User: Fold these one by one.
Assistant:
Number 1:
Amino acid sequence: MTVTDTTADTDTLTDPAGLRAAELEEQVRRTPERFRVLTGDRPTGALHLGHYFGTLHNRVRLQELGVDVFVLVADYQVLTDRDVAERLTEITEGLLLDYLAIGIDPERSTVFNHSAVPALNQLMLPFLSLVSVAELGRNPTVKDEIAHSRQSAVSGLMYTYPVHQAADILFCKGNLVPVGRDQLPHLEVTRTVARRFNERYGEVFPEPDALLSAAPLLLGTDGTKMSKSRANSIALGADADETARLVKGAKTDAERHITYEPETRPGVSSLVLLAALCLDRDPRVVAEEIGGGGAAVLKRTVTDAVNSKMAPIRARRAEYAQDMGYVRSVLRAGNERANEIAGATLDEVRGVMGGGL
Ligand code: TRP
């Protein structure tokens, strides 16, 4: 297993989306200037190591290849499954620090947020007219999120947010969207919206491709999926001591000998995987080397690996945190660019729709 190449995973290579990803990778390498990437995060909590290895490092990789990268802080999307967006400014600033620390370069990439780009949001209305209620109800990811929502009633925003996501992607005519498997149904909605809009009003939007990443599944310290909204993750901004404490408290099992068996030993294997990702090594080899050393050696290995891998990122993060004025200006400049582009796209949309809309 290599962790730097997001497509070279045997599972993904055997299915159509995985094959397409390999083909797209090839095209991105050859002609990066033909691609505009749009990705985003909901500001519901701090970004963590699962995000880093799953998506964040891939954004920087695409930026370095010369692709035009847009990173969205999807603030309106926070309201899909809760009544209020808590600590929004603080969490958003945390995300900005994370982006800068990992190497997102505001000279080349655009960081912006939903609520600062009105024309993007206006696109959602014509887009909503292109999909049926039945189609919205069939989205498996939305169904799953409704099942896990903290709200007693399902809001219209929850139901329709994949269409909002279509606006996120299409406002800037993004044609490549790096996603995990759970986001594939949403990308299908975006493709449908683009196709129907073009059929009805004339060719305006690209039909964006999903760039499926073989994101490794890291579990949180409690043995369930690492998640920003559960208290089970190691944040990018955590320091060395906090990392040691969190790893120490992570769930393992009663068997002393360390192995890499994700199916039967999820807790232990996730720790092995985390160390392997940080060390850029095969998790099976890492497990073998620890072997009879047991959980104590495993946890020490993980702590050391995470702390040395993250040290430069954390140092940069701390440095940027000294200059929040600059950090905020990055978002302001990104929003300015996003507003220009969204305004132009909305003008174009209104032009082809005609009839006073
Ligand atoms: N829904 C995505 C998530 O939860 C965030 C997101 C919002 C997004 N808009 C997007 C991702 C557009 C890709 C493209 O992670």
Note: The two ends are 52 Å apart (CA to CA).
Number 2:
Amino acid sequence: MINWDELEKIVNNCGRCELCRGRHNVVLGTGNRNSKIMFVGEGPGYHEDMRGEPFVGPAGQLLDKMLASIGLNRQEVYIANVVKCRPPGNRDPLPEERETCLNYLRIQYLLINPKIIVCLGRIAAISLITPNFSITRDRGKWFYKKGVQFTATYHPSALLRDESKKRLAWEDLKAIKEKLNELENN
Ligand code: URA
């Protein structure tokens, strides 16, 4: 199994898909590498590409508030994305780009060994939970795979576009916190 330094070196030099061409920075992930909970988004946007850090733009500010609402912060959890390089014009990452880059995310969660992985939005959920995942239908459900509890909620960008979804996201967040408490006490 490779370690974090080796993973960083490989990902920083990655040229395995077209997304490497337009990037300013690779966005591997941030936070606590011993966290019991991981949050996974779709891919870097403009701000993230410029800074080399996930969720630092407007969606990230909302994610910080979502974390704070359940007593967490970005230093104590781990935050990453399905793809590590910004898709041009913020388009959805293509299936082959996701598949290639998922190898890195899988190494990340093998190294971190979280009990819970929260998918933020559809792209993370179809990549990590099941290809036919529907956010409207399946958000808030739990999927147990290889020792990890997976769930999904709305992407913060979706909440910025449609505030009426915030109530359901809040329900999901409360359930996530409860599950975390339950698993931490086991
Ligand atoms: N949206 C994402 O999915 N990830 C980020 O890092 C920023 C915005």
Note: The helical segments are 4-12, 46-51, 58-69, 95-112, 122-128, 135-138, 156-161, 166-184.
